Amino acid sequence: MRSGVFEVGGAGLYYEVRGTGPALLMIGGAGGDAGYCTGIAEILSDAFMVISYDRRGNSRSSGRSHAPMSLAVQAADARALIAGLAGGRALVFGNSGGAIIGLTRAALHPEAMAGLVAHEPPAVNVLPDGDPGRGFFAELAALYEQGGAPAAGRRFAETTRGEGTYRWPADLWKRFLGNQDHLFGAEWPGFAGFRPDETALKSAPFPVVLGAGAEDRGTYYARPSVGIARRIGAPWVEFPGIHMEFLRNPGQFAAAVRALATRMYSRDGDIPDLWEGSAQ
Fold first, then answer.
1. Is 0.85 surpassed by the pTM of this model?
2. Cβ of 242: how many Cβ atoms within 10 Å?
3. Is there a contact between 240 and 213 (Cβ–Cβ < 8 Å)?
4. N or C end: fewer C-beta atoms under 10 angstroms in the chain?
């Protein structure tokens, strides 16, 4: 693994790169930490160049601000990383808020994407009117206003199925706790207001796949993936486990990502250089 800091637009983005081959950029959700992906990145590095990073203002990256951060800024950060580290083109995997950023990036900057896998984007605005899930972001914003990050964070954990049943790495947990004010203060409005650009996603010149975990059926953060897939005519896949299965069981989750990413790159027609040589 090699790591560094990539300077872009007033922020230094901490990144980690593992392996060689077709580029796979992984965008984490709440807390925006590269550590979410450590386990699956290690496993997938035998076939892909896996790039993970701390999103702007989170963990080891700089650029924190008290002002609301737009999704366009987050999408531009991902685009810059792909340009600087992956030669300008990559398959993107995003989980949760990272899936929302991936969908935004696909709509705004399609030229550098080989494909997008959006895993459980909590795009509650696509849920039907009157659905209780539509109030999630407003509920946590009010809790943050009244009781600060601890109150909002506790409620967030309560709504995420499977949390509390396994242990996070200690260093990742510590960094996540330090990111909560940034999450609820600066990033929350962008996530809360997200609506997918259905026209742009329908015409994307690369494969877009939506998906959710088998154990998350019925949750406010899994159901939107089905609605988006239907609206844009994209395939939908079932992943193993829960929202953060890549932390609970990285081997099982990585196997699902490997199969899907390989098919998506093959569909795109690219043959990795590693497969061009003679057998050793």
1. yes
2. 25
3. yes
4. C
